Amino acid sequence: MQERIFPRPPGLRRHPRSSVTLAGAVSLTVLCSAAHAQEIQEVTVTAQKREQNIQNVPIAITAFTADTLKEKSIGDINALSNLTPNVNLDASSPFSGDSSVLSASIRGVGQDDFAFNMDPGVGVYLDGVYLARTIGANQNLLDVDRIEILKGPQGTLFGRNTIGGAINIVTHTPGPERRFEAQATTGRFNRRDFALSTDVPLNDNLFTTLTVSSSVRDGYQRSIPYPEGSVYASTPFVTDAVGAYPKSGYDSSDANGGLNQQVVRGKMLWNASEKLSVTFAADWQHQNQPSTPVTTLRVFPTTGLFSGIYHFCISNPASVLDTILPDDPRVIAAIPGFPQLGQTTPVFNTTNGLCGPRVTGTPFGQGGAPLGGAGYVGGPGGGLALSGQPRLYWDENAVRTGSIDTTYSNGVSFAKHDAFGGSITADYDLTDDVLLKSITGYRQISWEVGIDLDGTPEQLQEVTDAQHQYQVSQEFQLTGSAMDNRLDYVAGLYYFREAGYVHDFVPFEGILYVYDYANDIDTESYAAFFHTDFKITDRFTASFGGRYSYEQKLFEGGQADLNGFSYKLFGCPPDERPAVFPVFGGVPNTGNITCREFIGFPEADQPLRYFPAGEQKQIFRVFTPKIGAQFFATDDVMLYASWSKGFKSGGWTTRLSNPILDGSEAEFKPEYNKTTELGIKSELFGNRMLVNAAVFYSEYSDIQLNVQQGPSPVMQNAGDATIKGAEIEMQAIVGGGFSFNFAGGYIDAEYDFVNPDTLIPADAALPKTPEYKFTVGPAYEFGLANGARMRLRADFTHTAEMFNDSLNTPELRRPSSNALAAAIHYLSPSERYEVVLGGTNLTNDRYLTTGSINLGAGQMSGTYNRPKEWYLTFRAKFDGLD
């Protein structure tokens, strides 16, 4: 079957290679822009780094064109989740508090964390440049020409951290005609979105485009006071001052879940000669909005270690706390999980013990007042009067508002994000059959976030975070054909470097206060790759490719506890050299060592630091091959088979529960994915219907998952799993203005081995991996007497239940869900103007999109999806302006 050749526009040389993809299960969501068309439009792709008809590409891909994105009112990557089988794309991750964070998994392989030390499992690319962080990866799609979702390991051609798949975003490329587009949207929650985009050709060889957008809406979870008549409203209680503890910021909001984001993108195409074209692209994104909503699902007042200490302190007078020992029956009954170390001193004392002042003696903040003998409001008996300055008793009565869209929290709520980047892409035709491409990229992120997890006006679990990252990359590609076009090949070299830091601020009731002196990452990667397709006959092609990668990671961990919890627990200050250590009934200090050395803290000059100072290093060398074959049974039916290997490098967890002396104790290993795939792609009934399907079998080993251990979510190699599944997608133009698309996916994912250190149940499901999902999308278009057109569209998606965490916590289960989006479009006779009235989540099905349990802090929380919303959009488009 011959490739179809597309003529260039008059007077315009070839643009840099661009692509649109279907699903490979080929996504049949690429609908032709005119429903009255008599056949489905052909789509050209470069999934294998050369231009091909999508139906000829032996890869599972889903694509959305610019028209489809507009027709379905898709504004970011997260909105594609319902339309793509075996793909889960959530906005935000546990306690990230930011909807710009993309939690992506494809066929059960992904990553659900925002921390710098953890790489994504699904690679996101913007105009050929890899976005290394999940922060900001939930990209705005306003000026996008197309977006492609490739399923399965893509390491051979797309590179690092595409073990689950890749998402390729291609922004608008300017053309030789003047163009101006404007769009305004209003909707529920005081939505006010505006966008302007223009193409301006400067001369016959230099074309430019600029897009400016602003997206603003109010939050959907309101912060409310305690109701009148409640004990919390009628009895005053004391809270720590706003500036008591160090944080990345102190902003709050009266409503969570709002949006305030501005984006500017520009691109310039220079056709320097018949052989050389250069594209300059740049983008800037600014975000300053409230955090994502938080619903406190459970509170464990006594069984959580730190919540138990908090409540024990406020429930007893200072005279008791200053004398009681941990093995006292009253302590054992009140705090079942308290470490019984045979302490011989009153560790709860109100002077310098666990119930005394918190986070004091540091330059970071004024610290929290002593808890000991405070008394409480709420809780057992409705309250306890002791000191006259009672604290809030943190139980479920203190957090339950009766609605997931309200909260008693009034603490930190912010997500601030500034990012910019640019790229230079040069295409040079060495010969008629050989193209050399260079892609040079630079990107930078500055990010601050704060989220209130405790559900109360107190600062019990207000988590803030700050990250900064920059990256540079360089890729060279050589694509061509030989042997009378029987051999197609691509080869290339790749370089990548990123560096930056992550700083966490986590209070744990102020009893243990996580602060990072340093958490610095520096990664450098080199790779060489190739891929070949050889036509053995006109209908049968064999493929082989591979990528050799070298990656070096440097890390300096600096997690610390500003409240010195371990020293207070042992009753032993850092620099003290007691004759007898006051634990285990008394341990003689025969070596005359300090309490710091005895407990195991590594640094004398930073006695609160958990990590040893100095850089840690890991080096990874790996070859990831791919082999395949494809056979054209007819000109319109293609069968294919492939086997590929994916790799994601290891690293270090930055969240520790205890100090370590050797940085290797925090390491986790690489993970691997070996996938076999069989597929079929077909065009039927004169190209009025596409039916494509695929089955796959993956061996997923050394899976990197976050596992909650005490107060800390720790990245570990959780085990090995076998993942089997299938996908089918259909697109059809029935006639009479009616068309539809259908997509369905099934996954059977089971652990073969579970690391016993993780406490993951042996029969647990992989997180974010529903067993099945299907989508039905009918559309109907008809003309009006004045020459205008009306278009009616709907998309219904049913998704099976899934778990949001690796432990399969029942309260964090996401039940099966039904999502319905619909819209009515009016297009003027000239198609210059368009008005759209639509709605999202019209079923108002609410479920947790992310969540976490922290038994150390004594709470469980999660974020629910957005409620039902309406919108009204007006678009104006002017092409061919003089």
Q: What is the gyration radius calculated from CA atoms? A: 29 Å
Shape: globular
Q: Please, what is the average pLDDT?
A: 91
Low-pLDDT residue intervals, each spanning 5 or more residues: 1-37
Helix content: under 10%
Largest β sheet strand count, sense and barrel closure: 22 strands, antiparallel, barrel
Quick one: how many beta strands?
49
Q: Could you tell me how far the N terminus lies from the C terminus, measured between alpha carbons in angstroms?
A: 42 Å
**What's the number of helices?**
8
The fraction of residues in strands falls at: over 45%
User: Would you tell me the structural class of the helices and strands?
Assistant: mainly beta
Structure in words:
By secondary structure, the protein is mainly beta. Helix content is 5%, strand content 49%. The protein is built from eight helices and 49 strands. The strands form eleven sheets. The chain has a 22-stranded antiparallel barrel. β23 and β24 (434-452) form a beta hairpin. The longest helix has 10 residues, at 305-314. The chain is globular and about 90 Å long. The relative contact order is 0.14. The model is unreliable at 1-37 (pLDDT under 50).
Protein traits:
882 residues; mainly beta; five-stranded mixed sheet; 8 helices; 49 strands; disordered N terminus
What is the element layout, followed by pairings?
Elements: E1 44-45, E2 52-53, E3 61-65, H1 66-71, E4 87-91, E5 102-106, E6 109-110, E7 122-126, E8 129-131, E9 144-151, H2 155-158, E10 165-171, E11 178-187, E12 191-203, E13 206-217, E14 221-223, H3 231-234, E15 255-256, E16 259-271, E17 276-289, E18 295-299, H4 305-314, H5 318-321, H6 329-334, E19 375-377, E20 383-385, E21 391-392, E22 406-407, E23 413-429, E24 434-452, E25 462-482, E26 487-506, E27 514-535, E28 540-561, H7 565-570, E29 580-581, E30 587-588, H8 595-599, E31 616-634, E32 637-648, E33 651-652, E34 667-668, E35 671-684, E36 689-701, E37 704-709, E38 712-717, E39 719-735, E40 738-754, E41 772-783, E42 789-799, E43 802-803, E44 813-814, E45 817-827, E46 833-840, E47 848-854, E48 859-864, E49 869-881
Parallel strand pairs: 7-10, 14-22, 19-21
Antiparallel strand pairs: 1-2, 3-9, 4-5, 5-6, 7-8, 9-10, 11-12, 11-49, 12-13, 13-16, 14-15, 16-17, 17-23, 18-48, 19-20, 23-24, 24-25, 25-26, 26-27, 27-28, 28-31, 29-30, 31-32, 32-35, 33-34, 35-36, 36-39, 37-38, 39-40, 40-41, 41-42, 42-45, 43-44, 45-46, 46-49, 47-48
